[in-house]
Amino acid sequence: MSPRRSDPTSAVSKRAPAFAPEHPWLLGAGLVLLTLIAYSRATQCGYIWDDNFHVTENPTLRDLNGLHRIWTDVSATPQYYPLVHTSFWLEYHLWALNPVGYHAVNVVLHAFAAVLLWRVLLTLRLSGGWIGAAIFAIHPITVESVVWVSERKNVLSAVFYFAAALVYLRFVAADVRNQTKNWWAWYFAALVLFLCALLSKTVTCSLPVALLLVMWWKAGTLKWRHILPLLPFFALGLGLALGTVWIEKHHVGAEGNAWSFPFTERVLIAGRALWFYAAKLVWPDKLTFIYPRWQISVSLAWQWLFPAGIIVLLAALWFARRRIGRGPLVALLFFIATLFPALGFVNVYPFRYSFVADHFQYLAAAGLIALGAGGLSRLPRLIPFLLLTALAALTWRQIGIYHDLETLWRDTIQKNPGSWMAQDSFAVVLLRNGKPEEALTHLRKAEEIDPNNVETQDNIGRALARMGRVQEALPYYRKALELRPDFAVVNYDLGNALLQIGQGDLAIPYLQKTIALDPTYLLAYNDLGNALLQEGHAEESLAALQAALKMDPNYIAAHFNIANTLLQLRRADEAMAHLGEALAAHPRDPEALKNMAWVLATWPDPAVRDGSKAVELAELATKLAPRPDPIIGATLAAAYAEAGRFTDALTTAEAARQLASNKRNTTLADLIRRQIELYQLGLPFRDNR
């Protein structure tokens, strides 16, 4: 091999780079320490959006069969990134669902990526390499990728990406220096690392383009000897990237009106996005989880200024390359090429609510950061020090918005109140926290922004149902179903609402369709069993409920409803066994305690009832409930009545009725009112369903 070949690791500057590596491991340790300090708050954060799909509710993390599915079934996980979910699988078996471990691993991976970036820049003899890596490590635009557990794909893929780049540069250097002994070892190591990067996130498919840019930067030309070794990299990258495009469309759901843009509009999106990302790098102000979604129009001349500006800038850097060098042009081309998968030319799901996101530019930022660091290295060292201090402070502050879902959505709404996604998602959190009235306020805002959003219509129905206004919820569920008839969640919600108002016959078809659309929909089996029982089909009800219990042997509601069905079939011993099994598995669960107490207090068969035991269980349920619960209150009142303590029953029932009224749950309030009428007559309540 000719010794004349250009070595991309050769020096490009006679000036010694700032922070020269006199003690490389000390400088590497400094990068890690800087990252750990800036991100020390990260371990105080919990899980946020999408973390349930990737971690907390991901069934593939539970056992070896799940690990097998992570690699062999593209639909087993939200996205087919098997190395990411394998890392989650390992962590689940080390510390279960403790978020501290997942956050700590993300921070360590990010620190390791920064060190590898430094080594790449050092290998390329770039001035300010350490400064560039330090900026990458603690720039606030990286917070979203590091503190969001689901973005493990970014930090893990970055480690493999920079490692592959570093090893490939070693391969090129070995080739140039005729070190044939290790030549192919370096090459295959780089190829394997690149494959690992792709299996972590396919946005890394741009690596061979980046390497070609480095070759051209150093040599001033590209020849076949530069291109041929990278052809397998291009083949791997293109193949897996196309696979991701298919999964985004057919599995994740990135298709429909929200992604229907002609090519001209995609050019406008791309041009504007590039300027947006560059601006956030230079001035990281008002960073938020969801940015406003731009209204794109080819008829607005000013929108063409963004792509035109990029073209002009590229042309200017091309013509100025002999005077200022090829570095600035290469940095910009790297930035564009690495961002390309997120610029709008291919559909990705987040474009439904925004065309830009901080985590999209995690890798791409390294190019412009390296360019800027070269300039900073020529300034007095106090200036880079002050810049790093400011960035660390901004990162520290930015981490706070990712503390939990409620904090995240409140911050997003404050910065982007016009986001239907933020308003809707925050409402879901409020519903989960038992605040349907506040949730409805945000859902109305989401509806104003997008009146034809299926999730918002469904969630308005849920909020109304939680407030006891089930009849009012029905039109919203029906509208959601018109918008998307094949949405399992909406079919379930409508069926559940019909069941609540005693229309089991109408509920059954929707619940059956839910199961047809999603055979793993546990709640649908449970409600179908209840609806069938309501319509007098006890044996069919039992089959549906047993299917639910087979899916989750610890499902308390299924145990209770099976017991209810068995009692109606006059199989009391089997029924009490199910209630006892649920209570034995969850002896301090308010739901299990309440269910057993209710049967012991209200069942028509005196052989089943036990008033004193019912009081004991209902009082414990009341004590253990996280907040006052009108259903538990009604159960305790029924237990007091069965035990002959009608004064206590009246007091407790009235408090439960008032609580139900305050929650606007009129259905429950009316039921408790009927119980109160019985207690006033000195009669216990009987559940004659």
Structure characterization notes:
The protein is mainly alpha-helical and 689 residues long. Among the domains are: 26-401, no CATH class; 588-689, Serine Threonine Protein Phosphatase 5, Tetratricopeptide repeat. Helix content is 68%, strand content 0%. The chain contains 34 helices and no strands. It has helices spanning 24-38, 51-56, 64-72, 82-95, 99-123, 129-138, 143-147, 152-176, 180-198, 207-219, 224-227, 231-252, 263-282, 305-319, 321-324, 327-339, 365-376, 382-399, 405-415, 420-432, 436-449, 454-466, 470-483, 488-500, 504-517, 522-534, 538-551, 556-568, 572-585, 590-602, 611-624, 630-642, 646-662, 666-680. Helix 5 packs parallel to helix 8, helix 19 runs antiparallel to helix 20 (420-432) and helix 30 packs parallel to helix 32 (630-642). Mean pLDDT is 91; it is low at 1-5 and 10-18.
Count, helices: 34
Largest sheet data: none
Going by helix content, strand content and strand pairing, the class is mainly alpha
* Beta-strand percent range: under 5%
Q: Give the overall average pLDDT.
A: 91
Helical residue percent band:
55-70%
Instruction: Calculate Rg over CA atoms.
Output: 31 Å
Report the principal-axis shape: elongated
Number of strands: 0
Stretches where pLDDT is under 50 for at least 5 consecutive residues are 1-5, 10-18
Distance between the termini: 88 Å
